[in-house]
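As a warm-up, study this chain.
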Amino acid sequence: MASQNQSTTEGTHASIEVPASEQGSNFPPFDSTTFASQLLWLAITFAVFYWIIKNVAVPRISGILEDRKDRIAGDLAEANRLKEETDAAIAAYEQALADARNKAHGIAEETRSKLKAENETRREKAEVELGKKLEEAEAHIAGIKTEALSQIGDIAGETTSALVEQLIGKAPTKTDLTKALKSAMN
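Now compare it with the structure written out below.
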């Protein structure tokens, strides 16, 4: 059996082995007898691929690039338009805000003026009322003062009479008392 295995192995090797004369020329691209047909098929294949690329692939790619370029240009134009609208809206907003501030300032100034005028009117009215009350109070005080001064002579006379009576033991006469009071007041 061992000899049978050995002969099978040798037989297998014998069929796989390439003769030494054919070893360098076995690869077709290096075979010099097929160069002309290889060059012909290379030219035909190149021409077919060139035609496909030129007439099919390049127009599609250039169409896609053109569409993309147009879309980008359109998007940029739309972005510029929207930016201009935004700038215009911001300017309108700022103008409206400035107008509102001016209007609010005007309303505040007008209200301040009205309140100032109302306060001035109230103050003048209060001053007039206070002036009247002051005049009335001064007149009342003057009346009380006059009445008090008119009674001061009688009070002073009574007080002096009581003091003299306490000191001397006898009340002075009315004429003596009037004379003494007049000389003391002058």
